[in-house]
Every structure is written in structure tokens, then in C-alpha cells.
Amino acid sequence: MAVIQKFSQQYPDAKIALNTWKKITEKARWKHLSEIKQTYNRSVDYVEGYTVFNIKGNHYRLITKINYQLKIVKIESILTHKEYNRGKWKT
Fold first, then answer.
1. For 14-59, how does the pLDDT look when each residue is reduced to its tens digit (9 = 90+)?
2. pLDDT tens-place string over residues 53-89
3. CA distance 77 to 86
4. Beta bridge partners of 47
5. Around 79, how many Cα atoms within 13 Å sit in the side-chain half-sphere?
6. What is each CA distance from 82 to 34, 50, 61, 73, 87, in whole angstroms?
């Protein structure tokens, strides 16, 4: 996941949280959002077709597309909370 490595170089404080997310996600066999919410509690939402994870106490947002049938989680973007709020991820 080169996206995680690249983001972690720019924001080193996100590295542990992103790597933890990666390990959990690689092992997961989620069938729908409610199962993800069981894993991540209130730290995940479905927004405009994307599954958005709050990372490191809501400092960062990990935006993904999930194909539950194929068990594929594609990272679309990782942003700071400010970038996310400005809608940068929608472009």
C-alpha cells in the first residue's frame, strides 16, 4: 500500500494508526458497513459512495471504495481533517 507509506512520510504521526488500519483491514471479511462499524465503532461512515475512516483520533481521513463481494478495499485518498472538510477528496 504505497499510498499509506507516502502519506506516512509526510505525516509521520499517522504511520502507526494507518498501519494498524491496514493490518485489521487485510484480515477482515466484512460483508457490509454494519460489520465495519462493529470493528471501528464510530470511526467510520458512508459518505457519498465512499467508506470514510477516521484515523488517529479524527486527525486524518482515509477515504475508500469497498467491494464487499470481491473483498477489495481500495484507498482513494488519505487527507488531513482540514483537507477533508474543504471537500478536497471529492475532486
1. 999 999 999 999 999 999 999 999 998 889 999 999 999 999 988 9
2. 999 988 999 999 999 999 999 999 999 988 988 886 7
3. 14
4. 50
5. 17
6. 27, 18, 9, 24, 9
CB atoms under 10 Å from CB of 32, counted, come to: 10
Amino acid symbol at 1: M
Q: Tell me the C-alpha distance between 71 and 73, whole Å.
A: 7
> How many Å apart are CA 6 and CA 72, to the nearest integer?
21
Rounded Cα distance between 69 and 29, Å, is: 10
Q: Are residues 62 and 4 in contact, defined by beta-carbon separation less than 8 angstroms?
A: no
Residue type (1 letter), 53: F
1/5 Cα distance (integer angstroms): 7
Phi, psi torsion values for 28, nearest 5 degrees: -70, 150
Alpha helices in 1-91 (DSSP H): 2-10, 15-27, 33-40, 81-85
